[in-house]
Amino acid sequence: MKEITTELLFSVAKYGHSKPRNDEPVVKFIARQTHLHLNGKQLKSCVVPNGCMPLLKVLYLYDNEIEVLEGLDSLAQLTHLYAYNNQIHEIKP
Questions:
Q1: Separation of alpha carbons 74 and 84, rounded Å
Q2: Which string of b and e fits 32-65 if b means at least 16 CB within 10 Å?
Q3: pTM of the predicted model, to two decimals?
Q4: Chain CA centroid to CA 71, Å
Q5: C-alpha to C-alpha distances, 33 to 23, 66, 87, nearest whole angstrom
Q6: What stretches of 1-93 show up as alpha helix (H) in DSSP?
Q7: pLDDT tens-digit series, residues 18-76
Q8: Nearest Cα to 12, choosing from 45, 41, 49, 55?
Q9: Which class for 75: exposed (0-12), middle (13-18), buried (19 or more C-beta within 10 A)?
Q10: I want to staple 70 with a disulfide (CB 3.0 to 4.6 A). Which of 4, 5, 57, 92 is the partner?
Q11: Residues 55, 78: contact at Cβ < 8 Å?
Q12: DSSP symbol at 49
């Protein structure tokens, strides 16, 4: 089962609008993200690591195989969630 890991978050984020700063720790770089494109990554579950993205506003999860969404309660700034074309049957906090 493909899961959301720190490595996946970093690999996706580094191709976004913001780039890692010199000598910036991976965790800090991920924490500054406001948009995250996890669409089409063959994800089976969406368990967002607690507290790792406090500034995230837009999360793209469409075109995966997600059955359960959970961990979204830690995304206090989230305003847009794109999760269509999945197999979601349950949403947990």
A1: 21
A2: ebeebbbbebebebbebeeebbeebeebbbbbbe
A3: 0.89
A4: 10
A5: 17, 22, 26
A6: 6-13, 26-31
A7: 788 989 999 999 999 999 999 999 998 888 778 889 999 999 999 999 998 888 888 99
A8: 41
A9: buried
A10: 92
A11: no
A12: P
Specify the residue for token string 């984020």: 13
Give the amino acid at 42. Answer: Q
Instruction: Retrieve residue 51's tokens.
Output: 């507290």
The torsion angles phi and psi of 21, rounded to 5 degrees, stand at -80, 160
Distance CA 42, CA 33 (A): 21
What tokens were used for 4? 């959301």
Calpha distance 33→57 (Å, rounded): 8
